[in-house]
Amino acid sequence: MKQIFSYLCITVFFASNLFAVKYNESLFTIDGRGFSRPLQIGGVESPVFFETKEGKFLFGGNPSAILSSANIDFFEWVLEGDKRARLNFTKDGNSYKVNLETTGFSEIINWGFSIHATKDEYFTGIMERVVDGEQKLSWEPGMTEAMDMRGQVVTTVVKPTVSLYCPFYLSSRNYSVFVEGTWPGTFDFCKSSPNLVQITFEGPFTTVIISGGEPAELVKEHSLRVGPTIVPPRWAFGTYRWRDDHTQREKYYDGTPVAAPYNSEVVEDILMMKAFDIPLSIYWVDRPWAKGINGYDDFEWDPDRFPNAEEMIGWLDSKNIKFMLWIGPWIMGDMAKEAFEKGYSVKGQLLERDKLERALIDFSNPAAVEWWQKKGIEKMLNQGVKGFKMDRAEQIIPNDYENKAFDGRVSREYHNDYPVMYAKAAHDICKLVYSDDFITMPRAGYTNSSRYAVFWGGDTGAGIPDKKTIPEALRSAIIALQKSAVIGFPIWGSDTGGYTNITDHEVTARWLAFSCFCPIMEVGPTENKGFWDLTEEPHYDKQLIAIWRLYSKIHEKMIDYSFQQAKEAARTGMPVARPLFLNFPKQPKAWQDWQTYMYGPDILVSAIWEKGKKQHSLYLPKSEKWVDAWDKKKIYDGGQTITIDTPIYKIPIFVRKDGNIDLGDLNKLYKESVKIASKKPNLKKLQKNEFSKKVFRKQLTSN
C-alpha cells in the first residue's frame, strides 16, 4: 500500500520546558508555563482537517490509539477501512513538533486547524499592510484598523506593491504561530467565528507555535528562525535622496543654465542639499536610467539622460555619498532575447511578450542566476554602484498550478518564494564583489527574505484620485514599520511623503519626522522635484526644507545608535523599531497606543498622522522615567497618558532617563534650520564653485 506523508509541525517553546498535550472531546489542549492560559486546538467541525482529491477528512471522536512518552505523544485515527491518520507531538529541545502522517490517502492538497480565542485577545503580524486585499484599502479615508488584526482575514500571497508577508502572528495570550514553506494559506482572525482563529493552507506545510512568556521573546525567536537579518554597512543608516524619474534639463529649477557634466537633477539635488547643510549618505536613481523605450535595456546607461554616468558615481563617492540603482527581476533588450533563447525566463510570466520584450528571470535556475549576475549586476557594481533598489518581485509572477519553475515547483508554490530568490541572487553577487559594503533593498519579501536585504514600504499612498498625499497614507506607514518589525523585517523605511502624489505640506512635514525614526530614512519627493521647486505654492517651501534638515540631522546623529540596534536585531532578534507591547506587555495601554513606539531601547516617539493636530496625547509606559527631548527639564513618571503641544515641525520624542543617547538641543537645531532655509541658494554660484576646473579635478583625483 502506498503511504503518503504530509507534515504539520507545531513547535511549542516554554520557558520552563514543562509540556503537556491532551486530547478530549475533539480538542487538543497544549499547556505549559508561558501561556497565559492553555491553548486549545479545535475547530467548528474538528480540531484538524485535511483534504485530498477523494474529499475532506476530519479528525473527531476518540482516537484508536494513543501513545505518550518522554519525547513523543501520538494520536491515531482509523478514518476509512485501513486508511489512517496520526498526529505526532515530538519534543525537540525546548519545542514540540507535531507532524501529520497519513497512510492510504492520495496527496494532501489542503488542510488546516483552528485555535480557540478569548474575547479580548489581540493578534498582530502576518503582513506589512494594515488590511489585506487591494493595497489602497490600507490608506482608505476613515480606516480604523491598526495593529490588532482581530476581525480580519488574510491570504498569505505576496501582493503588489506593499509586499512584505510572513505567515507569523503573535497573540496577547503569549503564543505565536508560524507556517513554514511557501504555499499560500489563509488566517481568519475571529471573523467567521468570533471564538476561533482558523488557519488553512495548501500543500504540505510546517506550523510553529511558540510560547516565550512575553511577546518580545516570540518575536526574537521568530526573527532568528527566519534570519538572522542582514546588517548593512553603517552608511546605510544615513539619509537617502532620490527622484522617481530623472530627466536631463538645460536649466536648473531657478533658470540657471546647466553647465555640469552630469545629470542636471542629480547635480541640483547635491548642490542644494550641500547649501542647506542637509546630510546625505545615499543617492539612488530609479528607472528609467538605461537605454531603450522603458529605460532598462541591457544594463547600459542612457547617455542622453545620464551623461558620464560612471564619472558621476565617482564624483558622488568623492563626497562620501554612496550610489544606488533601480533594478527589476526582468531584463529587456538583447539580454531578454538571449534569456528567452536559453530558457532562463519564467514560464507563464504575466507580461504581453509581443508588446514588451521583457524576460522575467527564473531565479530557481542556477545557470540563469549566474548569467544575470555576471552580465548585469556585477557589471554595475564594477562601475561603483553600491546597492540596488529591487522593485517588482511580486507583480508579474504567475500564481497557478500549470506553470513550473526550473526546480519543478508550480508557480502557486514558488510565487511567495520568488522575492526571496531574487533578493538572494542580488545579495550573493554584491557580497562577492563588496564583502559587506553594499545594500539591497526590495519592496517584496517573504519568509527568509531578511537574510538578504533591507526593505522599503512599496508605493504607499498610490492610487489616490487627485494624486495628493493624504494623511491615511502616513498612518499606514506608521503601522507598517511596526508590523514589519514583528514579522521579521527589522530594517525598513517608506517613501517619505507618499508615492506618485502631489506634496501635501503638512502630511510631508509629519512624514519627515516619522521617517527620522525609521532605520531607513529616504526622501523623494515623488513629484520629481525638490522642496525648493514644488508644484503647488509655496513653490520654495522653506518650512519643509527646514524640517527636512532638522530630522536629517537628528537621523544622522543616531547613525551609530541605529547601526548598533541593527546588529542587535541580527544577534538577538529584537527589532530596531518596537511596538510598545514588546517592551511593556503587561500594560494594556501599550497594546492600545499604536502611534507610540520605541526606537531601540532608549528612544520613545509618537508619530502624528492627522492634519491640524496642534496637541497630541500619548502613553508613557510605567517603570521608567521619561525625559522630553525637546525640553530636558521636563521629566515624566511613566504609567500615564500626557498631552503635549505639537506644532508642525515637532514629533514627540522622549528618552529613557537612564538611556545612553543624547539628541542635543533640538529647538536650537530647528531655529538654525529655519534660518538656513530662509536664504535661497545661488545655483549659478554653487555650480561654478563645484565645477571649476581646479576644484573638480582635485575631487576626482582624490577619489
Can you summarize this structure?
This protein is of the alpha+beta class and 703 residues long. The strands form ten sheets. A seven-stranded parallel beta sheet has the order 27-26-23-20-19-32-31. Strands 6-5-11-17-16-13 form a six-stranded antiparallel beta sheet, with no helix packed on it. The chain is globular.
Write the layout of secondary structure elements.
Layout (H helix, E strand, L loop, with lengths): L2 E3 L14 E5 L2 E5 L7 E3 L6 E5 L2 E4 L6 E4 L3 E9 L2 E10 L2 E9 L6 E7 L6 E5 L25 E3 L7 E9 L3 E6 L4 E5 L6 E7 L3 E5 L4 H12 L12 E5 L20 H13 L5 E4 L4 E2 L5 E5 L7 H10 L3 E6 L2 E2 L2 H9 L16 E2 L5 H16 L5 E4 L20 H4 L3 H17 L4 E4 L1 E2 L9 E2 L14 H16 L5 E2 L1 E2 L8 H12 L4 E3 L18 H16 L1 H14 L4 E3 H4 L4 H5 L3 E4 L3 E4 L8 E6 L4 E4 L6 E3 L2 E6 L7 E4 L9 H12 L5 H9 L1 H10 L1
Parallel strand pairs: 14-28, 19-20, 19-32, 20-23, 23-26, 26-27, 29-30, 31-32
Antiparallel strand pairs: 1-10, 2-3, 3-4, 5-6, 5-11, 7-8, 8-9, 9-10, 11-17, 12-14, 13-16, 14-15, 15-18, 16-17, 21-22, 24-25, 33-34, 34-35, 35-40, 36-39, 37-38, 37-40
Helix pairs in contact: 1-11, 2-15, 5-7, 9-10, 10-14
